[in-house]
Design brief:
46% of the residues lie in helices and 17% in strands. By secondary structure, it is of the alpha+beta class. It folds into 4 domains: 120 residues, no CATH class; 85 residues, no CATH class; 188 residues, Alpha-Beta Plaits (2-Layer Sandwich); 71 residues, no CATH class. The longest helix has 33 residues.
Length: 508
């Protein structure tokens, strides 16, 4: 109040007819209860913005001013010259710590703030029209609504927690910078707290909602894939859930089909209970191997298994993993079964090929199944069936052969067009991992492939001895016997001029 009285005494402060408080021609912004926002200039005390003179300096200067000047004597400067007070507002008070005339201000934490300097600050604000004005009340309300809406929209439209966090931080930084700029340039006080609290609240709500929704989605993913994938792959799926499209996605993967040799005849010899026990043991062995090699178990079809390597997450080495799993299955099944049934029913045939396919939910509105569809899948099923014609256990396509490179030893079997397909492709028998196939088996492979080369060149008289030699060394080699029959037929009846060496299968 004292500061207002000072400004009023020098005719700087007056009340307008409409009730406004004016300093000169400028209105002084007051709050609802007549409160005045002080524009502080910095820390108080003798080292602050206001000049301090001690009472002793003023008294000493007055005493010296009362003495007559002596001719020729140098004038000693006064510690508090009268000119320092001319046309100035002087606030008289005590600043000694023992008098306890100190008040709380924004700078109190830096050093004690004398109470008399508060009056000096207010008087300066009024005389210089250096006042703080509040921003319009709608500004922080609009900011609160805008920030809350932005954060919620980012969350709803799938920006992710990192995106929402970045946007929240940028909004907080922008609002703080705007508040600082307005205060420094125009003395406008923009509410800083409410919008920042709104931002923090909106972010916390978005984080909580995201946690709930993401947790629910993770549980759904875990429930869905626990039937198809190993726990290790499920963990990876959950960590990369944003890359898994349950509605369907295009992938390049390896399709795997297997079934049990002569299962129909064997099943006729078993009781239903014995058949179920046998299948459970067989599926347990094979499925564990598939899952351990990061394969996705698609379905059981009777005694057959369909699996996909490279789904639902892409795998660079999907073909290598599929071939490794196939070889391990064949090795494990060579052991005598613990359940009922003769030894031979453990022999299985496997067909594999690599290529594009669509993987996702397929079915009706009432029942969906997560599966793979496409020409690659159909071809793998056909290759599995062709094992019977060539007497092989694992047949792979040329695309899988290219994918695995030199990691495995293979034997080129034929240029084959499976039933239902016009285009032919090279098919191979998977023999084993590189470095693990015995030397005699590699020699037989070389001898057989020499025969295939001469066969394609129409040199049947050269191909026949190669196949006969291969069959003599391995009498159970059905593929060699098949080529011997072809060569003998073509030596008696030469193929047509447009013969392309393709064998077109008539059965699945």
């Amino acid at each position: 109040m004292a500061a207002f009285q000072v400004a009023r005494k020098i005719d700087k402060l007056r009340i307008a007819p409409d009730g406004r408080l004016l300093a000169g021609d400028a209105a002084i912004p007051l709050g609802k209860r007549g409160k005045f926002l002080v524009r502080w200039y910095g820390p108080g005390g003798p080292n602050g913005v206001f000049r301090y003179y001690s009472f002793s300096d003023v008294l000493l200067s007055w005493q010296r001013g009362q003495r007559p000047a002596q001719a020729g004597a140098a004038q000693e400067p006064l510690p508090a010259p009268p000119s320092a007070f001319k046309d100035k507002v002087v606030i008289v008070g005590a600043s000694a710590p023992g008098l306890f005339d100190f008040r709380s201000t924004p700078f109190t934490t830096l050093e004690p703030y004398p109470g008399m300097e508060i009056h000096a600050t207010i008087v300066s604000n009024l005389l210089e029209n250096d006042v703080v004005r509040r921003a319009p009340s709608w500004a922080p309300i609009a900011a609160v609504l805008a920030f809350s809406t932005l954060v919620c929209c980012l969350f709803l439209f799938g920006a992710g927690m990192q995106g929402v966090l970045l946007a929240t931080g940028l909004c907080a930084l922008a609002w703080s910078a705007l508040a600082a700029a307005l205060f420094a340039a125009r003395g406008v006080w923009l509410d800083l707290v409410a919008p920042l609290i709104a931002l923090a609240t909106a972010f916390a709500a978005a984080a909580a909602a995201s946690y709930q929704i993401e947790g629910k989605a993770r549980r759904q993913l875990r429930t869905m894939f626990s039937r198809y994938l190993s726990p290790i792959v499920i963990k990876e799926v959950l960590e990369k859930s944003d890359t898994v499209e349950l509605g369907g996605q295009d992938l390049v993967a390896t399709a795997f089909f297997s079934d049990i040799k002569d299962f129909t005849g064997t099943s006729e010899k078993l009781t239903p209970q014995e058949l179920v026990a046998f299948l459970n043991e067989y599926f347990s062995l094979t499925t564990e191997i598939v899952l351990r090699h990061k394969g996705m178990l698609d379905k059981y079809i009777g005694d057959a298994i369909m699996a996909i390597f490279g789904a639902p997450l892409p795998l660079k080495d999907h073909a290598v993993l599929a071939c490794s799993a196939a070889l391990e299955i064949q090795r494990i099944l060579q052991r005598p079964p613990s359940g009922p049934g003769p030894q031979k029913i453990w022999k299985t045939r496997i067909g594999m090929t690599s290529g594009p396919m669509v993987v996702g939910n397929v079915g009706s509105a009432d029942r969906l199944g997560y599966t793979a569809i496409g020409d690659t899948v159909n071809l793998a099923s056909r290759l599995e069936g062709q094992n019977k014609a060539y007497g092989t256990s694992i047949m792979i396509s040329e695309t899988t052969r290219r994918e695995v490179g030199d990691a495995f030893e293979t034997r080129e079997l034929d240029l084959l067009a499976v039933k239902g397909k016009k285009n032919a492709l090279l098919v191979y028998e998977l023999l084993g991992k590189a470095g693990e196939v015995p030397a005699p088996a590699l020699e037989l492979k070389r001898r057989f492939e020499d025969g295939v080369h001469w066969y394609r060149e129409r040199a049947f008289e050269k191909a026949l001895p190669a196949f006969e030699s291969s069959l003599a060394a391995r009498p159970e080699d059905v593929a060699a016997r098949l080529y011997i029959d072809r060569c003998r037929e073509y030596l008696q009846h030469a193929p047509a001029a447009d013969w392309d060496g393709v064998y077109r299968a008539t059965t699945k």
